[in-house]
Amino acid sequence: MDIDGQKRAAAARALEFVEPGMRLGLGTGSTARHFVELLAERVRGGLRIVAVPTSEATQRDAQRLGVPLTSLDETPALDLTVDGADEIAPDLSLIKGGGGALLREKIVAAASDRFVVVVDDEKLVDRLGERFAVPVEVVQFGWQATAAALERLGAEPELRQTDGRAFVTDGGNFILDCRFRAIDDAREMECRLNMTVGVVENGLFIGRTSTVIVASDAGVEILPRGGGRSS
Ligand code: 5RP
Questions:
Q1: What's the DSSP call for residue 224?
Q2: Cα separation, 7 vs 122, whole angstroms
Q3: Strands 204-205 and 211-216
Q4: Active-site residue 158, yes or no?
């Protein structure tokens, strides 16, 4: 199975967690998009759910596919959110925000009883930050000063750009992709980043994951907290 097939297989397994009447959060990214497509098939088959999208992109996909949408204003408590991730550590802590949607993703995850993460096995790491920089969403005003403050926390911040221009999030902010030599205490770092003036939110998701579904060449499995693997 190629990587895209693996992502779809993980998303298909996540669909087994969906029950009629649920209020869902819909993640952002290529794996989450597979979930939205598969969910839409079930909706066309008569499944009744409502969903909150975590980005404008996911909102467009869901609308096009006919998934009934709501907002956190109308539906502030959700049963289940299904989303992708960029890195997963053995304790199921995550780095997210590769697609730039980390702020809405974290708000929606925080509003959900259950947060199910769907990935291919290339996302598994021993320690967060091993491969992926931590995306940090910052307000545009004074972003260089915010970057300097993040450097004092040990980060090497780089302004995210697309086509030579600063990437702007759905919330109108910039992203600083922050490499760290090592993140010794991810929970503490999540707090310290958010205490930095100018930071809106960061892509460390610590203690939020209920379940991780990992797809690999060998098949799809649920990852237990602590790192061992079982199907
Ligand atoms: C978007 C995210 C995505 O979930 C993350 O980047 C994984 O994306 P993909 O499923 O395309 O690998 O956090 O902000």
A1: P
A2: 11
A3: unpaired
A4: no
